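chain below, 564 aa
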Amino acid sequence: MPETTSPDLVLLNGVIDTLDPALGRTHALASAGGVVVATGDAAAALAPEAATVLDLDGAYVMPGLMDVHNHHSAAGQADLFECRIPPTAGLDAFLDEVAAWSSALPADAWVVGGQWGSGLLEEISTPEALARLDEATGGRPAMLRDDSLHNRWANSAALAAAGIGPETPHPEGGRILHDGAGRPTGVLFEAAGVLVEKARAAGGGDSVGDLARAAERGIEMLHAYGITGFQDAASSLQLLQALKQLDDAGRLQAWVVTSMAANDFIFGTAPLGEGIIEHRESLRSAHHRPDFIKIFLDGVPPARTGAFLEPYLPEDGVPGCTCGTTTMKPEELEGWLMRTAARGISAKIHCTGDASVRLVLDTVQKVRAAGHGEVRYHIAHGQFVQESDIPRFAELGVTADISPSLWFPGVISEAMKSVLPAEVAEKMQPNRSLLDAGALVAAGSDWPVSVSPNPWEGIYGLVTRKDPTGEFPGTLWAEQAVTLEEAVRIYTVDCARAMGLDDVAGTLAPGKSADFVVLSADPFAIDVEMIPGITAEQTWFAGRQVFSTEAAAAGQPEAAAPAV
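prediction:
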């Protein structure tokens, strides 16, 4: 047990689930200097010396939840500065929201936000829809992202600002949709959207200070769900600088692992790759670990840019069959992974099609053969995996980074059905098979691609393969359900291990950070249908309270612990 003379905090009279197999559940826990120092009777004995004693009155406590894949600063930015619309909105409701938001902006301001659902793609790809968007935005330039954050819908003013017209060529890795007369509809796939992102940035991009504010807001929002550690899945140099700024000021209240963008055809940030990597050590801090690169190896199936072994369904007006392509040739991907592995840098690789998954596995096999056994590899999303490739995850030490909105019925799974053969679209996210094959599976929200980062909705989806909101009926490949115990580990212990945070987080064993959440219910003591309704009553990071329902009700975004 770590030595301590006077604990800062002692929890008493609780059901404290340490998730450490050797400790199990206990009734008390003590921390000092933000670190767990004792559990059980030994912790209770320290109560008279503690600066703060929290009587849990039987409440259930568990380690802080983890999120292996989100875009926290983008979520904070959307909450602070952008128009936010649920992706389930129909076109009329979507445009009404845009009009209401736009009317409150200055006449020359950009209208930025989203998300339009992938199911609206055909409806918005018309001159009439573009005219309606122009009207709703009142002549202001507008750039609205879809539910994957990969694609954009821009109005006429934004297209003009980006220099996009009938003769504009499709950028590499992107596509500009046109109407029957050859005019852009405003729908921009992948890299085509970057043209508008850059036009907006030319008018004054986000400062490091703005990003710090957005990152801090995103973390505050995560605290409300009991999340105390996460991996940002596509990080710019400016975001790394913002996180360092926050941590140096004592304001980074979470464990953050960043994924330095090696390539980018979505966000339009610069520099990329080595331009970020060269600064990583100077931007590392107590709670921030810039330990991964991020590679976008393909796009998204609804835009037909995910890379598959078999072709998409035929598309009107598009000759021949298409399977989608990877953004890198095999030799380029191998070069990236070999060079970064030699420096101990891990990689998170975006793969939405089974062809891109296979390419990653083939490449990691070469990296492992070259003697690089310690670096971590995440196949992000990976909802479509060939059966023969499933055992290779465990064999090669590759983590399955899975996103909840893709493992239960919803907007995105419905959009998949419109472009993929039924026998492919119905076999999404083979989580049970991956676990049975020994793979490390870690859960991420992909928030704000998903509407919410709520882990309990994700856990419910993992266990039942049903939509936790009840909006979409049925199940999605129910045979791939996991147990509740497995799902909780996927959001805690296994997530921490995947991110390289298992030295400080994931369990409440002595020596680990005192990160925990007090829940409204014990998930193992209630009916599974009640799991989506579980809420965080209190969230603590490094022995300090960072969220409580009481503070939130009083309008305080953050609740600090009493001074110690």
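The longest strand covers residues 227-235. Residues 559-564 have pLDDT under 50 and may be disordered.
thats it, cya
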